[in-house]
Design a protein that fits this description.
single chain; alpha+beta; 434 Repressor (Amino-terminal Domain); Umud Fragment, subunit A; 7-stranded antiparallel beta sheet; 9 strands; elongated; Cro/C1-type_HTH; DNA binding; Peptidase_S24_S26A/B/C; LexA/Signal_pep-like_sf; HTH cro/C1-type domain-containing protein
Length: 183
């Protein structure tokens, strides 16, 4: 799982010769709130990640990092059954035939789940199929607006109201993992 990297925020702020107080004022947040983001005590909401990226001249993706050196533990969990006895969410392996930004290369296989929109959490990577094209995006929800943030700067941010997002839900898959075959 990726999480917000406060060190990247601090590095960019200093590169722009801004104090914490100045950047907080530009964002319209209390300096203490901003200081908590930079110290790693709190994570900014999606709205502020997007605004920080614009102000500091980067993409929202820049602020997220892969957590390394994680201990992997397995735990048996009971999955809820659907009334007809099936597991309610569909989990699929999808082979990718084309490169999708710098995250997935042709030949990789993704483990994805068809999950309800309401179960997605801010910052999660999703596979989106639209206009015959697959894209990997980061999901953010702010009030009743869904932001689908691209993983590269050449794509536009998709902004959807809840109704449009619900219509597009059948084309969104939560990325659970990736398998890279030996090449």
């Amino acid at each position: 799982m990726e999480k917000f990297d406060p060190l990247k925020l601090k590095k960019l702020r200093k590169k722009k010769n801004l104090t914490q107080e100045e950047l907080a004022e530009i964002l319209g947040v209390h300096p203490v709130s901003y200081a908590r983001w930079e110290s790693g005590q709190r994570e900014p909401k999606a709205e502020y990640v997007i605004r920080l990226a614009k102000i500091l001249g980067t993409s929202p993706e820049y602020f997220f990092k892969e957590e390394k050196n994680m201990e992997y533990k397995t735990k048996k969990i009971d999955l809820p059954n659907h009334p007809n006895g099936n597991i309610p969410y569909q989990v699929l392996w999808i082979e990718i035939n084309e490169d999708l930004c710098n995250v997935v290369k042709a030949g990789d296989v993704l483990l994805v789940a068809k999950v309800p929109l309401k179960s997605l959490k801010n910052g999660e990577k999703i596979l989106v199929s639209r206009n015959g094209k697959r894209e990997i995006r980061r999901y953010f929800l702010k009030e009743n607006t869904v932001f689908l943030i691209p993983m590269n700067d050449s794509e536009e941010i998709i902004i959807l109201d809840r109704e449009k997002a619900s219509e597009m839900e059948k084309h969104m898959y939560l990325i659970l993992g990736k398998y890279q075959p030996l090449r």
